[in-house]
Amino acid sequence: MSFRSRITRFFLWIMVLATGPLVGAKIFDLLVLVGAWSADPPRSLRLLPYGDNWPVDTGEFFIPGSAATLLASLGALIAGWTTPWRYRAQLVAPALIILLTLAITVTVFWPLNSALWHASIHSPGAEQDPAKIIAMVREWVRLDWVRIALAAIAFIVSVNTLSQPYPATRASPDSPPVRAAVFAGVGGIIAFVAYFLIRGLA
Known about the structure:
This protein is mainly α. It has 5 helices and no strands.
């Protein structure tokens, strides 16, 4: 087994071992914790897992694990970049799926979390219309199922890739513009992970 194949499979194993528990925990979170605070909004928003009654934020579990899955999928993609496209595509898919999932988290869920939390504590200027709060909660739950589905797909693809032998043939070298785009993309993803961790755990 070549060095590249070992590194690729190492990152794939990290991806699988991190994503599996995260998907299970997210389903538990959605059915139990979210099921409680979304049961009868706006009254049930008092059960949101934030504030003094919840000394451990759920983000402290999900954010580092999610960042680890993105970095692992990126590591597998970089290590296996020289493989033929039929195999490389299976490395690209989880990285893009996890990146999309985290982008949805940052752009949609973080603002929704903030809006719902401020509504629950009746902050000045916070939304207090029950109909609009109910709509926000329903959107939150619906999109969270989308996040779970995306993470499950990334998990399944990674497991399937691990079950296949690493290709013995190499792809043709990429052109300079493609290499430049790849380096820029990798740098952007690493910067996004740093932002995700710093902002999410702040």
